[in-house]
Design a protein that fits this description.
By secondary structure, this protein is of the alpha/beta class. The protein folds into two domains: 210 residues, Rossmann fold (3-Layer(aba) Sandwich), CATH 3.40.50; 65 residues, Arc Repressor Mutant, subunit A. Strands 1-2-6-5-4-3-7-8-9 form a nine-stranded mixed beta sheet, sandwiched between helices. A two-stranded antiparallel ribbon has the order 10-11. Helix 2 packs across helix 3, helix 2 crosses helix 8 and helix 5 crosses helix 6.
């Protein structure tokens, strides 16, 4: 683990979303970039033993949501949590890990190298527990309220009925935050929790990152500024290869997505995600006939 100092978040920097909780942590110990707690955060959680489908969905949603400038929050656990942190590092995004023990040691220990890489790349590790506090079993449900509390919403990807991910979802629901869940096939034990959340109306069923972002656009501007259309389009910040390629292919002449598919040689999924990103950011506009064009001069 890096020898970076452990600091205590001052009251002046305390996350406003955490202040809304009925039982906010009295202290926040941290290592890394504390400024991330004041960015637009979204939690992604799930099972420690994901299926091939669960791993694929975790990577897919992580990449897609990062392209909208979100900071992704998780718990550094095995499985879905680790995939979220690892993919975020690969994509050059930002992520926060919330631990259930003191920051003088990393739990699980096998993720010490991952934690160090996070810090080296300008990310953040948080805990409400003072250095020296061991990883007691009862700490983790308490920790989960911080994961959801820091975030505008929580996305659950493949979770059993009895899991920490469902505890996080319950916290988010009680905190009056949106809960999203990725559906899976019936009969898969590792996904029963997601299907239960959807069936009980505690979570919204989502199939794409765009569905998450479109819902988040209803959150007040001061909490999620990046999802609101700017009045005057700026030069776009292009994150993915597909966004860059699509931007070059677009012009101020309306063009149909089918034409963009031909010109860019991207997949339908890549074009759809990139167009949604540019539209939400206010850089392209959908016009008559389902065509798209650049906005501004």
């Amino acid at each position: 683990m890096t020898n970076q100092l452990i600091d205590v978040c001052p009251d002046s920097r305390y996350p406003p979303l955490l202040k809304q909780l009925r039982d906010p942590p009295q202290s926040l110990y941290y290592k890394g970039n504390i400024d991330l707690i004041h960015t637009s955060c979204l939690a992604i959680v799930g099972t420690r033993k994901p299926s091939v489908y669960g791993k694929a969905m975790a990577a897919y949603f992580t990449k897609g949501l990062l392209s909208y400038g979100l900071t992704l929050v998780s718990g550094l656990a095995f499985g879905i949590d680790a995939i979220v942190h690892e993919v975020t590092l690969e994509e050059g995004g930002k992520t926060i890990a919330v631990l259930g023990n003191g920051l003088d040691r990393i739990y699980p220990e096998r993720h010490a190298a991952l934690a160090q890489k996070m810090l080296q790349n300008g990310n953040l590790i948080l805990s409400e527990y003072a250095p020296g506090t061991p990883s007691h079993k009862h700490n983790f449900p308490q920790r989960n309220r911080i994961i959801s509390g820091l975030s505008l919403a929580t996305l659950v990807i493949e979770a059993p009925i009895k899991s920490g991910a469902l505890i996080t979802a319950k916290h988010a629901f009680e905190q009056n935050r949106d809960v999203f869940a990725v559906p899976s096939d019936l009969g898969r034990d590792s996904a029963e929790g997601c299907n239960l959340l959807i069936g009980s109306d505690m979570a919204r069923l989502v199939r794409t990152p765009e569905e998450v972002v479109h819902r988040l656009r209803s959150v007040p501007r001061e909490l999620f500024p990046t999802t609101h259309l700017p009045s005057v389009p700026r030069a776009p910040t292009l994150v993915t290869h597909a966004q860059k390629k699509l931007w070059k292919a677009l012009s101020h002449r309306p063009v149909h997505p089918y034409e963009l598919l031909k010109v860019t040689q991207l997949s339908v999924e890549e074009v759809s995600m990139a167009l949604s990103y540019l539209e939400v950011k206010g850089f392209v506009q959908r016009v008559e006939g389902g065509k798209y064009m650049k906005m501004g001069s």
